[in-house]
Specification:
Length: 439
């Protein structure tokens, strides 16, 4: 609580002393704050998006896992196309239990046999087709993992850039709050203003620092998620991202949808799954056809008895076709219908996502133009006029502060729309598989 001062000279002296003391404390706090905070500017050692994407494609555990799944699926193709393992039998038959009488009894003999199961013609080809389609689906899944990683890394990169850019904006505009604080202190010391205006200006200045700290916390969280995406273990930190340039994007929505229908690996994955389900239906129908097992037998008899041989064939009989093979066909047909419905749903989802991202891109472009060429210049003029008017005693402090806060908000919103646009460009590029934009 301030002690009332009666003389105007003493008021002025006390106000000047308080103002300079406040300025000194502010500068001391600022120096202490900046010395403890990590640097957020500078050209050396900047982070570049291409380097991050390259590292992610090399080291991402998710991409490696998807690649391993695709490799495992490819190894299942020759397995599915191979014949079943042949069976070999070795045995001995003795006449009676009293003694070993091989060579003495005509019924005593050594027995050998070898058998091979031969599937009905066409079954092996269908099994290979199913395995091949599943392998192609897994390979498309590996591509999905790649472009999802690219998009995730890009998103984290732009989040880091936006956080650093926000800190820069807040620091630049903190100087204006300092001017407002100085003007409020001068008005207060001369008896033209109130202490409340000084406190208001100081509060807003410290709220700017609070927002800086929140952005630093955001930087640390984003760095942790980016490090995990890159496959880095432990505590990670990154340099400041280099300021990216806006990517040109001249494709229409209809062109993007057409590209996506042809190239999207989300759609390709579902198409291959539908093809595999269709081959599974054909295979289920083939199961009613019998398989053949050919067995060659040889019996070695000692003494004067002649050796014996035989050749037999076993055929399985689909005796329970109504409850087994037919039901398997119905199951495969239902799975095929589900795969086709999933394919249609994926096409609709991709189309909807492209429309959403394209709308976001165009909206961001319009808002960026509005902020850059309309609101920000107008707000900058307003703050200068309001600050001059406040110094002259014609404008309230609240008016100056609110206009400065509006300017800060407009500048931050501009860069938020910039990053939203760039993310939309990458999302559209990856969904539509536009190769030249990935460079």
């Amino acid at each position: 609580m301030l002690v009332p001062i009666k003389t105007r000279r003493f008021i002025f002296a006390f106000g000047e002393t308080a103002r300079w003391a406040a300025v000194g404390v502010t500068l001391f706090c600022a120096v202490l704050f900046l010395s403890a905070a990590p640097a957020v500017s500078g050209e050396a050692g900047q982070l570049h998006l291409d380097d991050l994407i390259g590292e992610a494609l090399r080291n991402s555990p998710e991409i490696k896992a998807a690649g391993a799944v695709a490799s495992a699926a490819r190894h299942r193709i020759p397995q599915a196309q191979s014949l079943a393992d042949p069976m070999v039998m070795v045995g001995y038959q003795n006449d009676g239990f009293s003694r070993f009488n091989y060579g003495e009894s005509k019924d005593a003999q050594w027995m050998f046999s070898a058998s091979q199961m031969l599937p009905f013609p066409g079954k092996r080809a269908l099994k290979g087709e199913m395995a091949a389609k599943e392998a192609e689906s897994a390979q498309a899944g590996a591509h999905i993992a790649r472009y999802k990683t690219i998009f995730r890394v890009t998103g984290f990169y732009y989040d880091l850039f936006l956080a650093y850019k926000t800190i820069d904006l807040l620091r630049d505009r903190a100087a204006l709050f300092t001017r407002i604080e100085g003007a409020a202190a001068a008005r207060y010391s001369s008896g033209m203003g109130s202490q409340q205006e000084v406190l208001m200006a100081q509060t807003e200045k410290y709220m700017v620092r609070e927002r800086e700290e929140m952005q630093r916390q955001r930087i640390q969280s984003t760095e942790a998620m980016l490090g995990a995406t890159l496959g880095r273990d432990g505590v990670v930190s990154f340099e400041r991202p280099a300021e990216p340039a806006a990517h040109p994007f001249d494709y229409s929505m209809s062109e993007l949808i057409e590209f996506a229908r042809k190239n999207s690996h989300d759609i390709i994955t579902k198409e291959k799954m539908a093809d595999a389900a269709e081959a599974r239906v054909k295979m289920a129908k083939k199961e009613s056809s019998p398989d053949f097992t050919i067995t060659a037998n040889y019996a070695a008899r000692g003494g004067v008895e002649k050796d014996m041989w035989s050749l037999t064939t076993q055929i399985n009989i689909p005796l329970y076709q109504q409850t087994k093979q037919n039901e398997a066909v119905h199951e495969a047909e239902a799975s095929l219908a589900a795969a086709k419905y999933e394919l249609e749903a994926t096409k609709l989802m991709v189309t909807s996502a492209i429309q959403d991202s394209f709308t976001m891109l165009k909206t961001s472009e319009r808002l960026m133009d509005l902020y850059q060429n309309g609101l920000i210049p107008k707000a900058s003029q307003d703050i200068e006029a309001a600050l001059s008017g406040y110094t002259a005693g014609k404008v309230e402090a609240l008016t100056v502060i609110s206009r400065l806060k509006a300017l800060i908000d407009f500048e931050m919103l501009y860069w938020e729309q910039f990053t939203a646009r760039e993310k939309a460009v990458v999302r559209l590029t990856t969904m539509a598989e536009i190769r030249e934009l990935e460079q």
